[in-house]
């Protein structure tokens, strides 16, 4: 029986994540190369963790997804995991605000031999989303961008996704700030706006999974479109 009363620390979380990952996660060389190239290019250390990135790939395989929409490309780390799981005729559409980040990601996609599956739209995501059509619809939408706009991103994702499709929104817990009445920064308020909306949105069902690991205490929202 474990001692559930013992306080845990980020060192405990990191050790546990590294231990389980050592048994379950063997990133392909192209994933490792993309991570190294992103660091060398000066991109911020904000990429999805390896366990979550592999989860995204498994989700693509499980749903037999053919079209995936990603909001927030960065250096392409999570995009590569998802594109590897797509069938040869599948497509990942990924949106990135920064020209520099998009250029690094494009090079990473090319080096991974996946550029034929991936299309990057550069510019404000809300503008790029408005130009996308739900024909054919996307099967999965992954939102990992500025949390201030997670509600409009979610609404656009719902417009573009097929019934039964999945929308994931990262960075929902924010070290517990989302539930802290004293926290009122724009990112936290953006997450709260999304949660308030989903509470009364009868077109989706959703839950939140909390995560802990080397990147701290956070979580993601998992929603499915009903109709």
TrEMBL record:
SUPFAM superfamilies: S-adenosyl-L-methionine-dependent methyltransferases
GO molecular function: O-methyltransferase activity; S-adenosylmethionine-dependent methyltransferase activity
One Pfam family cited in the UniProt record for this chain: Methyltransf_3
Annotated keywords: Methyltransferase, S-adenosyl-L-methionine, Transferase
CDD domains (alphabetical): AdoMet_MTases (cd02440)
Entries under InterPro entries matching the protein: Cation-dep_OMT (IPR050362), SAM-dependent_MTases_sf (IPR029063), SAM_O-MeTrfase (IPR002935)
Family: Belongs to the class I-like SAM-binding methyltransferase superfamily. Cation-dependent O-methyltransferase family.
Name the record gives this protein: S-adenosyl-L-methionine-dependent methyltransferase
Lineage: Eukaryota, Fungi, Dikarya, Basidiomycota, Agaricomycotina
């Amino acid at each position: 029986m474990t001692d559930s009363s013992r306080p845990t620390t980020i060192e405990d979380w990191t050790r546990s994540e590294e231990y389980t990952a050592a048994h379950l996660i063997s990133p392909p060389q192209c994933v490792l190369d993309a991570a190294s190239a992103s660091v060398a290019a000066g991109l911020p250390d904000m990429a999805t963790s390896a366990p979550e990135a592999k989860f995204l790939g498994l989700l693509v395989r499980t749903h037999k997804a053919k079209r995936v929409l990603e909001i927030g490309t960065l250096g392409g780390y999570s995009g590569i995991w998802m594109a590897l799981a797509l069938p040869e005729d599948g497509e990942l559409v990924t949106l990135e605000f920064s020209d520099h980040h998009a250029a690094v990601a494009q090079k990473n996609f090319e080096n991974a031999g996946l550029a034929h599956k991936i299309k990057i739209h550069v510019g404000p995501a809300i503008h790029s989303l408005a130009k996308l059509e739900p024909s054919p619809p996307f099967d999965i939408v992954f939102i990992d961008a500025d949390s201030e706009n997670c509600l409009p991103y979610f609404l656009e994702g719902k417009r573009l996704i097929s019934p039964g499709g999945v929308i994931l929104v990262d960075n929902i817990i924010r070290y517990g700030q989302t539930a802290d009445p004293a926290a009122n920064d724009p990112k936290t308020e953006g997450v709260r706006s999304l949660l308030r909306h989903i509470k009364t949105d009868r077109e989706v069902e959703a839950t939140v999974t909390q995560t802990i690991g080397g990147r701290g205490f956070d979580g993601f929202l998992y929603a499915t479109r009903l109709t």
